[in-house]
Specification:
Helices cover 73% and strands 0% of the residues. It contains five helices and no strands. The radius of gyration is 16 Å and the shape is globular.
C-alpha cells in the first residue's frame, strides 16, 4: 500500500463510506420496484442471467450499504463487485444485445462514472476499516 494512503483522514473515510452508502440506498429501490412489478424477469428482451444480474442489487446494494454504514471493509469490496458486474451487464445489454451507443445511454454514463469513483476511492478507505 502506498504510504500516503495510510494517512487518509478518518473524517474523509467516514464521509466516503456515507456517500457510497447513500448512492447504494438510492439505487436499491429501482431494483426492488422492478422485482415487485415484474418479478425476476423485468426485461423480456434480455436473457435470464442478465435479468437476474439486474435484480440481485435489490439485496446486494442494501447489504453493501449496511456494511459501509457499520464501517466494515467488506462493504467496499461488495460495492466494487456490484459496480463492476452492473457495468459489465449494462455494457453487454447496450452493445451486445441492443447494439446501442454510449452517448445515447445516460444510465450507462452515470454507472461508468460510479464505476470509476467507487473502486477509485476504495483503496484509500479500505485500509482504515476493520474486517
Amino acid at each position: 500500500m502506498i504510504g500516503w494512503m495510510h494517512h487518509t483522514p478518518r473524517r474523509a473515510v467516514a464521509s466516503v463510506c456515507v456517500i457510497a452508502a447513500v448512492l447504494l440506498f438510492v439505487g436499491a429501490p429501482a431494483h426492488v420496484t422492478d422485482l415487485l412489478r415484474h418479478g425476476l424477469r423485468p426485461y423480456d428482451w434480455a436473457p435470464g442471467r442478465l435479468n437476474l444480474s439486474w435484480s440481485s442489487p435489490a439485496l446486494f446494494d442494501v447489504l453493501a450499504a449496511g456494511f459501509l454504514i457499520r464501517g466494515k471493509r467488506r462493504g467496499t469490496d461488495l460495492a466494487c463487485a456490484i459496480v463492476f458486474t452492473d457495468l459489465a451487464a449494462n455494457g453487454y445489454a447496450v452493445y451486445g444485445i441492443q447494439h446501442g451507443d454510449f452517448a445515447a445511454q445516460p444510465g450507462l454514463q452515470r454507472l461508468t462514472v460510479l464505476a470509476a469513483i467507487v473502486p477509485g476511492t476504495a483503496p484509500f478507505i479500505r485500509r482504515h476499516l476493520p474486517h
